[in-house]
Amino acid sequence: MSKYLSDLLKANEPMFTSALKQLELASGDQSVDVRLTAELIGKAHMKMRELGLDPSDTTGKELYHALMSLVKKHDEFLSTKIGSKDSSDVSDLLPRIKDIVEKMDVPKKVWVLRLSVAKRLLKAMPPKHVMKHLGYKSVDSMLKREPVAELYGSLRFAEDPEWLRLFLQKYKSLRPSDFESRDIEILLMDSEKWGELTKAFVNKKRHNLTHLKELGVILMLPMPVMKMRGITITVLPLLLHYLNEIRLYSAFFKLQQVKPDFGEILVNTLIADPDKHAVMAGQKIHWRVIQRYFGKLESEYHPEMFEPHVQPEDLHWRKAEEVLYHVEPALHFWYDLDYVAILHEGRPVTFNLMDIAISYVNDLPYHDRAVYHFREALWNEIFMRYLGQKTLEAQVLKQLDNEMIAPESLVLHSGGLG
């Protein structure tokens, strides 16, 4: 049954199948992949029937267009719910989307760089291109008049790669005392001020959001058009996704604050985001999987090794579709489908809301359909299913708790899923 998962993920073979066998041997469970495959097919067929389709004779293209039609309908529902009369009016919708997320009762507290320290770093290495773009000759004058989070957001669009590399290296001197707890900030960047600088990024990414992990900021970039279909159902779940991402790295940095090389870990994470935070039966495990696994458990179960710095609320996370159906009940259709797809002609047709929304907003044809978020979700789901086996959970916790244990001493064989 691992072949079905392998085909959905377009995984490297025979490494993928070998890796699953190692995980099964280490966990003592020989059927995690079988159960997951059956669940994927079962959920996909159930949702196809809800769409009025017959799973036995529906083509991938028919399913894709049915999902696109549903996203169109749900986008209109959502835009109406947040008070807009035109579901394609970008300038009207973006502030409304920002406002509703800011009012949502979801965790937003994070451990991030103090703004005073962020200013000090910019003062020590003035961003010349940003200053020129804004018309400042003095960095002090710019820092007095411009929001520091907005300036940090502009660095990646205005400064060259070498300047960014050197600037990030300065983070190596940062200490835990340079960080504080505060709420995630959502910034809607002004079109006249930043539109030209950010246009290339928006066109490449096919959406207008980015985030600053170390500052706890989500940037809503200007859109290069006035009208765009599907803007609400694309931007709203992506905003919720980035809330989770920032909280994910906040918890990781809190856990690392006791390390003597805290600054090095910070820089390496921001530049390369290494996935070897633990090793489970020979497979590298990203902190994302660990955080989500423990975040899904009952709140009273909180491993001692996370304390006192990482608390249960730091690990808590909620999928975007779980939040959205409380805004508009019709969106319950998408609940718990982020890792679900069905295979057609060797390629997945995904039920992941963000993938379908991105396909819809960009009017992607069937053969160019988005599958990125689904594949990431399925990778994470596979690892979490195996991490749920107590022997592997204990193995991962032992590595996180004891820096003296070399990860390679805990594995069966080398090799990865990727």
Order of helices and strands: HHHHHEHHHHHEEHEEHHEEHHHEEHHH
The main sheet orders its strands as 3-5-4
Major beta sheet summary:
3 strands, mixed
What's the β-strand tally? 9
Strand content bin: 5-15%
Mean pLDDT: 87
Shape: globular
Round the Cα radius of gyration to an integer and report it: 22 Å
Low-confidence region ranges:
402-418
Supply the number of structural domains.
1
Query: How many helices in DSSP terms?
Result: 19
Percentage of residues in helical conformation: 55-70%
Record the SSE blueprint.
Blueprint: H1 2-9, H2 15-27, H3 32-50, H4 60-81, H5 90-103, E1 109-113, H6 115-124, H7 128-134, H8 139-145, H9 148-158, H10 161-169, E2 179-183, E3 185-188, H11 191-205, E4 209-212, E5 217-220, H12 231-256, H13 262-272, E6 278-280, E7 283-285, H14 287-296, H15 312-315, H16 320-327, E8 341-344, E9 347-350, H17 353-361, H18 372-387, H19 390-401
Parallel strand pairs: 3-5
Antiparallel strand pairs: 1-2, 4-5, 6-7, 8-9
